[in-house]
Amino acid sequence: MDTRTALLTRRTIHDFTTAPLPEGAVERALEAAIRAPNHKLTNPWRFTRVGAATRPLIVEIGLEEKRKKRGELSDAAQATLRKKFGNPPELIVVSQVLDADPHRRREDYAAIACAIQNLHLSLWSEGIGSKWASGAMTHAPDTYKAVGIDPQVEEIVGFVWVGYAEVIPDTPRRPLAEVVRTTE
Ligand SMILES: Cc1cc2nc3c(=O)[nH]c(=O)nc-3n(C[C@H](O)[C@H](O)[C@H](O)COP(=O)(O)O)c2cc1C
Known about the structure:
Number of strands: 4
Structural class: alpha+beta
Strand order of the largest sheet: 1-2-4-3
Number of helices: 8
Largest sheet: 4 strands, antiparallel
Helix content: 40-55%
Distance between the termini: 38 Å
Bound molecules: flavin mononucleotide
Number of domains: 1
CATH topology: NADH Oxidase
């Protein structure tokens, strides 16, 4: 897939199959991620690949965060969430090493956003879907504990769920004419 096709066709995937990923696809995506621009070469990103023993903890944290928001969950709602958090064959927690300087922190966050996009596009170029999620479960204290990240040192920027799409959604954009200005 050429770069432009990847850029234009990539979509955030919300529903994943359990199909395993090809050998090395995640490593190739991580290689692409760390090639992202980063000012002062701070390499502010850290990627934690969530292993099989930790995933069930993440699923439970996800359910608990939903309960806090919506109250007790029906069996059907639980089943849907278990599928949502359990199906994707790979979960990568992306975190930012916290710099003391607020300006540097902002730039580092921007660099990590670029890295996540590289990650998405590398996967997409191989036909693999992904999703950047930043919901409550991604910053719950229990998540930090489960994945071994010290919140004094790193901040979780998001989860990247990875797998094959069950459905590829279509997400519109406002047309260029509405978002581009040209000065005299
Ligand atoms: C910083 C950031 C956080 C996001 N967090 C979530 C999230 O928590 N849940 C979700 O469903 N999508 C999340 N997304 C994905 C966006 O919803 C998605 O990019 C948007 O709907 C456009 O869809 P597309 O990526 O298919 O073009 C996030 C995207 C970004 C950039």
